[in-house]
Design brief:
mainly alpha; single chain
C-alpha cells in the first residue's frame, strides 16, 4: 500500500525545493516588513507586488512539474498570486487602498490549501501532519483578521502582514522538508 502511494506521488516530491523557495520568499517578506515599519506604504505595496509575482511564477512551475498528483491547488494558487501581483502592479493607487484585501484573500486561499495538504500528509502516513495543520489554521485565522476589519488591518497592516507571511513561510518551508523526507524514503525503497 505505501509503495503504491509513493509511486503515485513520486514526481510531486522530486521538486520539493521549489516549495522551500516559496517558503523562504514568504519569510523574507515577513522579516522585511517587520524590519522597515516606517517605510512608505507605497514601497510596501511594491514589495508585495514583487513577492506575489515571484511566488506565483514559482508555484505555477511547481504545479506544472507535478501534474500527475494533486496539482490543481498549487496551480490555482500560483495563478491567483500572479494575477494579484499583476493587478497590484497595474494599479498602484488602488493597490495601497486595497492591500489588506489582496493579502487577506490570497492568504485565506493559501491557508485552505495548507489544510488540505496537511490532511493529505496524514493520508500518506506522515506522523507529524498535525503541525502542518496548526500552521495552516493559524494562517487562516490571521487572514480572517485582515479581512474582518480592513480599517484596523490598514492601520496595522505592517504587523499583521509580517506575522502572516512569516507563519505562512514557516508552514511552506516545513511542508517542503516533509516532501524531502518522503523523497528520501521513496529513494530508499
Amino acid at each position: 500500500m505505501i509503495q503504491r502511494t509513493f509511486k503515485k506521488i513520486e514526481k510531486t516530491i522530486k521538486r520539493w525545493y521549489l516549495m522551500l523557495i516559496v517558503g523562504i520568499i514568504f519569510v523574507v517578506m515577513g522579516i522585511w516588513t517587520f524590519a522597515t515599519p516606517l517605510t512608505s506604504y507605497a514601497a510596501l505595496s511594491i514589495v508585495f507586488v514583487l513577492g506575489f509575482l515571484i511566488n506565483g511564477i514559482t508555484e505555477v512551475v511547481f504545479a506544472l512539474g507535478n501534474r500527475d498528483y494533486n496539482w490543481g491547488w498549487s496551480l490555482a494558487l500560483g495563478i491567483l498570486s500572479a494575477i494579484v501581483g499583476i493587478l497590484m502592479l497595474l494599479n498602484p493607487g488602488i493597490t495601497m487602498a486595497t492591500l489588506p484585501y489582496y493579502v487577506g484573500f490570497t492568504l485565506l486561499f493559501r491557508s485552505i490549501s495548507g489544510m488540505v495538504t496537511a490532511y493529505d500528509m496524514k493520508e500518506y502516513g506522515i506522523l507529524d501532519w498535525g503541525s502542518l495543520m496548526v500552521n495552516a489554521v493559524l494562517g487562516l485565522l490571521l487572514s480572517f483578521i485582515l479581512l474582518w476589519n480592513p480599517v484596523f488591518a490598514g492601520v496595522n497592516v505592517v504587523i499583521w502582514t509580517a506575522v502572516t507571511f512569516i507563519v505562512l513561510g514557516c508552514y511552506t518551508i516545513y511542508y517542503s522538508f516533509k516532501l524531502r523526507k518522503l523523497n528520501k524514503m521513496m529513494k530508499e525503497k
